[in-house]
């Protein structure tokens, strides 16, 4: 089985590859990257791809049996880009696609959901065997803000008391590997999230516990939080998107208690406290 992985230079792609290597399953893996030079350290064949240039996708997918389609990163362009690669996969006779979607994409109020749901429909319409991994939030989505919280004395956000069932990025990578290398996953949709849920107040308290510093959670109105992010140098559109995601989190869209992720990987998901400790280290 020859496997191709999109986004191989990203955090999730690299973790999937590392887990395949540690299991001795990497010899038949090919990485797909927009900038192959960034993948020079990975030690595997890299094929150049450009989601906006379908001809590059057709060449890149030649001879591929299974495609791990890690969702593209450009908001607002994903649906078109995913359509291009799914069409190319069909033309190249790819046998199976595994797609990283969004937790509860069919009901989520996150503005990310539409493009993921559209991609899921494309996969179903393509006739290609497929599995959908609806990934919940990565705990690392928040650990990147720890340094700022320590400097400012508070962790800010707009998630209120919303409970977030996050897991470490490595947990989701392990789930992808389980599906890549396992059987009986075709046609299935997995709702993947952490075993334990927490609020941003809990997150701030954990930072306080591990650092010995008093870090409070400060809940802000959406517009005020977006403005604060812009003040930290986050581009305006992305700052507004982050703030809107927090508001959706306050409404419970990032909560899930199905434990499908831990069942799939055969172990408990990584506690938030562990990911915080790794970030502080």
- The fraction of residues in strands falls at 5-15%
What is the CATH topology of the largest domain?
Rossmann fold
**What count of domains describes the coordinates?**
2
- Rounded to the nearest angstrom, the distance between the terminal CA atoms is 38 Å
Count all strands and give the number. Answer: 9
Uncertain residue segments: none
Q: What does the main sheet amount to?
A: 7 strands, parallel
Question: Please, could you describe this protein's structure?
Answer:
The chain is of the alpha/beta class. It folds into two domains: 3-135, NAD(P)-binding Rossmann-like Domain (Rossmann fold, 3-Layer(aba) Sandwich); 136-167 and 192-256 and 268-281, UDP-galactose 4-epimerase, domain 1, CATH 3.90.25.10. It is built from twelve helices and nine strands. The protein has a seven-stranded parallel β-sheet, sandwiched between helices. Strand 5, helix 4 (113-126) and strand 6 (129-135) form a beta-alpha-beta unit. Helix 2 crosses helix 3. The longest helix is centred in the C-terminal third of the chain and has 15 residues, at 236-250.
Summarize the structure.
With 281 residues, this protein is an alpha/beta fold.
């Amino acid at each position: 089985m020859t496997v191709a992985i999109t986004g191989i230079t990203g955090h999730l792609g690299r973790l999937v590859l590392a887990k395949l290597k540690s299991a001795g399953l990497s010899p038949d893996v090919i990485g797909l990257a927009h900038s192959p030079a960034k993948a020079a350290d990975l030690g595997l064949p890299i094929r150049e791809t450009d989601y906006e240039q379908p001809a590059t996708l057709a060449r890149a997918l030649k001879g591929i049996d299974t495609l791990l389609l890690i969702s593209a990163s450009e908001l607002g362009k994903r649906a078109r880009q995913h359509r291009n690669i799914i069409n190319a996969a069909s033309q190249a006779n790819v046998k199976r696609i595994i797609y990283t979607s969004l937790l509860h994409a069919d009901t989520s109020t996150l503005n990310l959901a539409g493009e993921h749901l559209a991609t899921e429909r494309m996969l179903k319409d393509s006739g290609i065997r497929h599995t959908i991994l609806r990934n919940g939030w990565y705990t690392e989505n928040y650990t990147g803000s720890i340094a700022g919280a320590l400097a400012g004395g508070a962790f800010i956000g707009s998630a209120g008391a919303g409970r977030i069932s996050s897991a470490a990025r490595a947990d989701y990578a392990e789930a992808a590997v389980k599906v890549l290398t396992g059987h009986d996953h075709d046609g299935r949709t997995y709702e993947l999230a952490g075993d334990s849920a927490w609020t941003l107040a809990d997150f701030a308290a954990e930072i306080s516990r591990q650092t010995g510093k008093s870090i409070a959670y400060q809940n802000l109105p959406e517009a005020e939080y977006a403005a604060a992010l812009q003040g930290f140098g986050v581009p305006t559109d992305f700052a507004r998107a982050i703030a809107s995601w927090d508001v959706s989190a306050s409404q419970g869209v990032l909560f899930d208690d199905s434990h499908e992720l831990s069942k799939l990987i055969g172990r408990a998901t990584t506690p938030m406290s562990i990911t915080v400790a790794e970030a502080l280290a």
